């Protein structure tokens, strides 16, 4: 059996603080506010801000300043919080989309440490609180494209991974960065299965990891990450398929050779190391030319076209100049 990656989102919620009817009424209000805004850009931000205020608070707040990084703030409509946190891939908690929301309550995001090691001058084990204070938090409104052919738009909170990389000072032997996810059978029931070779490992070339859009992520929708979305710290690499963004990270290694990532080990002919979003390179079993936006595009509606590098070509295209992207998929 083939399982499809894209490591997604969700956290079990015991109760709704605000009744659903109030939530829906406020969403209708934000739509009217957005339609009446002076311009499309202002409308997009009005909708984003109003939706963030309208939905029920669930987790500890984690605000971020509006990012000034080029490409960090798409003007597309954010995907509803319930979809972002309820429709996920996180195989450590099961392979069904609803499994992370159902089972991730067993994850203990505190205390938490991340070991940074390998080819660096200043290796260190960081406590979560140290990482939270390492650089100012920013909100990044990114598109997310799953290799399975669906997409979302998510307001993440974090800072560029480059902030951490500069502090640990990679040596000349550091060519790649490897991210290792927690693999604890007592907290993650899915780790008892053989669907993947645990722990989950992902990786980037060093120049990819240094790109300002590569986000070390601690929150979404102005709150700390829900467990099912990769609490307490994850990567978000918006120009790549979602499974490239490792969750619940416990180790970051700087290495000389290309890491053997979880999906390369599982099915290298289907999920390559780079896995850049590319509408011109199909998955062996389906087209990547179009996508379905969760919460907006129904199963029987016309799909939207997929953008090269998920719409971030102007920002990241130069990283792959001269590469055969059909070979380096």
Q: What's the topology here?
A:
Layout: H1 20-35, H2 40-54, E1 65-66, H3 81-84, H4 99-103, E2 113-118, E3 124-127, H5 128-133, E4 138-145, E5 150-160, H6 162-168, E6 176-181, E7 201-205, H7 206-210, E8 215-220, E9 223-224, E10 234-236, E11 249-255, H8 262-267, E12 290-293, E13 304-305, H9 313-316
Parallel strand pairs: 1-4, 2-11, 5-12
Antiparallel strand pairs: 2-3, 4-5, 5-8, 6-7, 6-11, 8-9, 8-10, 12-13
What structural keywords apply?
329 residues, alpha+beta, 5-stranded mixed beta sheet, disordered N terminus
Descriptive overview:
The chain has 329 residues and is an alpha+beta fold. Helices cover 21% and strands 20% of the residues. The N terminus is likely disordered.
Distance between the termini: 22 Å
How are helices and strands ordered from N to C? HHEHHEEHEEHEEHEEEEHEEH
Helix proportion range: 10-25%
Count of helical regions:
9
The low-pLDDT segments are: 1-54
- Mean pLDDT across the residues is 87
């Amino acid at each position: 059996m083939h399982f499809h990656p894209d490591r997604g989102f969700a956290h079990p919620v015991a109760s709704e603080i605000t009744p659903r009817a109030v939530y829906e009424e406020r969403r209708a209000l934000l739509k009217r506010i957005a339609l009446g805004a002076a311009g499309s850009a202002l409308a997009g931000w009005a909708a984003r801000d109003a939706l963030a205020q309208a939905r029920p608070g669930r987790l500890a707040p984690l605000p971020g300043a509006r990012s000034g990084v080029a490409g960090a703030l798409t003007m597309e409509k954010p995907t509803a919080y319930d979809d972002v946190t309820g429709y996920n891939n996180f195989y450590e908690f099961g392979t069904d989309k609803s499994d992370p929301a159902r089972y991730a309550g067993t994850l203990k995001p505190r205390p938490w440490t991340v070991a940074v090691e390998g080819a660096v001058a200043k290796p260190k084990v960081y406590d979560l609180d140290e990482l939270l204070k390492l650089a100012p938090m920013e909100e990044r409104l990114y598109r997310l494209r799953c290799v399975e052919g669906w997409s979302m738009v998510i307001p993440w909170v974090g800072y560029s991974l480059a902030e951490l990389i500069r502090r640990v000072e990679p040596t000349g032997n550091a060519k790649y960065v490897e991210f290792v996810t927690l693999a604890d059978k007592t907290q993650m029931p899915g780790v008892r299965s053989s669907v993947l070779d645990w722990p989950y490992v992902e990786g980037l070339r060093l120049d990819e990891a240094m790109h300002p859009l590569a986000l070390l992520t601690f929150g979404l929708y102005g709150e700390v990450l829900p467990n099912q979305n990769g609490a307490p710290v994850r990567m978000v690499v918006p120009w790549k398929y979602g499974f490239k963004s490792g969750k619940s990270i416990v180790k970051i290694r700087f290495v000389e050779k290309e890491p053997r990532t979880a999906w390369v080990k599982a099915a290298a002919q289907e999920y390559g190391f780079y896995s850049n979003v590319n509408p011109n390179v199909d998955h062996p079993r389906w087209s990547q030319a179009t996508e379905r936006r969760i919460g907006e595009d129904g199963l029987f509606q016309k799909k939207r076209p997929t953008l090269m590098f998920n719409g971030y070509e102007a920002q990241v295209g130069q990283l792959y100049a001269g590469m055969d992207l059909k070979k380096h998929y």
